[in-house]
Protein backbone atom coordinates (compact mmCIF):
# COMPACT_ATOMS: atom_id res chain seq x y z
CA UNK A 1 0.00 0.00 0.00
CA UNK A 2 1.53 3.34 -1.01
CA UNK A 3 1.01 6.63 0.71
CA UNK A 4 -0.96 9.28 -1.20
CA UNK A 5 -0.21 12.42 0.81
CA UNK A 6 2.57 13.76 3.02
CA UNK A 7 2.18 13.23 6.78
CA UNK A 8 3.48 16.71 7.57
CA UNK A 9 2.13 19.10 4.90
CA UNK A 10 -0.57 16.91 3.27
CA UNK A 11 0.86 17.59 -0.20
CA UNK A 12 0.21 14.80 -2.72
CA UNK A 13 3.14 12.37 -3.01
CA UNK A 14 4.50 10.81 -6.18
CA UNK A 15 3.88 7.04 -6.17
CA UNK A 16 6.56 5.21 -4.14
CA UNK A 17 8.28 8.51 -3.32
CA UNK A 18 10.80 8.41 -0.49
CA UNK A 19 10.52 12.11 0.30
CA UNK A 20 7.85 14.83 0.01
CA UNK A 21 8.55 17.35 -2.73
CA UNK A 22 6.99 20.13 -0.64
CA UNK A 23 8.63 19.87 2.79
CA UNK A 24 11.18 17.05 2.50
CA UNK A 25 9.42 14.83 5.02
CA UNK A 26 10.23 11.12 4.61
CA UNK A 27 7.34 8.96 3.44
CA UNK A 28 6.24 6.12 5.71
CA UNK A 29 7.68 3.51 3.34
CA UNK A 30 11.05 5.29 3.44
CA UNK A 31 10.95 5.43 7.25
CA UNK A 32 10.27 1.66 7.29
CA UNK A 33 13.21 1.04 4.96
CA UNK A 34 15.53 3.12 7.16
CA UNK A 35 14.37 1.27 10.31
CA UNK A 36 14.97 -2.08 8.60
CA UNK A 37 18.46 -1.00 7.51
CA UNK A 38 19.31 0.16 11.04
CA UNK A 39 18.04 -3.14 12.49
CA UNK A 40 20.16 -5.18 10.07
CA UNK A 41 23.19 -3.03 10.93
CA UNK A 42 22.65 -3.61 14.67
CA UNK A 43 22.25 -7.36 14.12
CA UNK A 44 25.42 -7.44 12.02
CA UNK A 45 27.38 -5.45 14.61
CA UNK A 46 26.05 -7.71 17.38
CA UNK A 47 27.13 -10.82 15.52
CA UNK A 48 30.67 -9.46 15.10
CA UNK A 49 30.82 -8.35 18.74
CA UNK A 50 29.68 -11.84 19.78
CA UNK A 51 32.37 -13.50 17.64
CA UNK A 52 35.08 -11.24 19.07
CA UNK A 53 33.83 -11.94 22.60
CA UNK A 54 33.70 -15.70 21.98
CA UNK A 55 37.24 -15.58 20.62
CA UNK A 56 38.47 -13.58 23.62
CA UNK A 57 36.83 -15.99 26.06
CA UNK A 58 38.28 -18.99 24.23
CA UNK A 59 41.75 -17.45 24.57
CA UNK A 60 41.34 -16.85 28.30
CA UNK A 61 40.17 -20.40 29.11
CA UNK A 62 42.90 -22.16 27.20
ZN1 LIG B 1 5.34 17.42 2.92
Describe the overall structure:
The chain is mostly helical and 62 residues long. The protein has one domain. It contains 1 helix and no strands. The N and C termini lie far apart (55 Å). The model has no long low-confidence stretch (mean pLDDT 94). Zinc ion (ZN) binds at residues 6, 8-9, 11, 20, 22-23, 25.
Question: How widely separated are the two ends?
Answer: 55 Å
How does the major sheet shape up?
none
Which regions have little confidence, pLDDT < 50, spanning 5+ residues? none
Total domain modules: 1
Assembly state: single chain
What is the overall silhouette?
A: rod-shaped
* Overall radius of gyration: 20 Å
Overall SS class: mainly alpha
Report the order of strands and helices: H
Rounded mean pLDDT score: 94
Bound molecules: zinc ion
Number of helices: 1
| Share of β-strand residues | under 5%
Percentage of helical residues? 40-55%
The beta-strand count equals 0
Amino acid sequence: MSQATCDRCQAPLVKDASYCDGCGQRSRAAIRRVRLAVRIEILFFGAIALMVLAFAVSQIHR
